[in-house]
Design goal:
The chain is an all-alpha fold. It has a domain of 57 residues. Helix content is 23%, strand content 0%. The chain is built from two helices and no strands.
């Protein structure tokens, strides 16, 4: 069965598809499922320790130098209300 792709050339293993914002839905769903299963808490700060581990949600290094990261919750990230926009 063939699917309509809108491409003029044949789709191959090297064809690039633009997923962009579609991945946000899958990521949010996975995070909410983890919250539902008590594997994380969406009200935690991103600098808090992941339950059952010694790791924080966001590493403490220069690659994650997010302004005000000590005040940002997972829920704020999901709602796009954390103030993180171009990091």
């Amino acid at each position: 069965m063939f699917q309509q792709t809108g491409f003029t050339n044949a789709v191959t293993s090297s064809t690039h598809f633009r997923a962009a914002s579609n991945t946000k839905t899958f990521t949010s769903t996975a995070i909410l499922l983890l919250h539902q299963r008590a594997r994380l808490n969406i009200n935690h700060k991103i600098t808090d320790t992941i339950p059952g581990t010694t790791m924080t949600y966001v590493p403490e290094d220069q690659n994650y130098a997010i302004p005000f990261k000590n005040d940002i919750t997972i829920l704020q990230l999901l709602q796009h209300r954390s103030g993180v926009f171009d990091v």
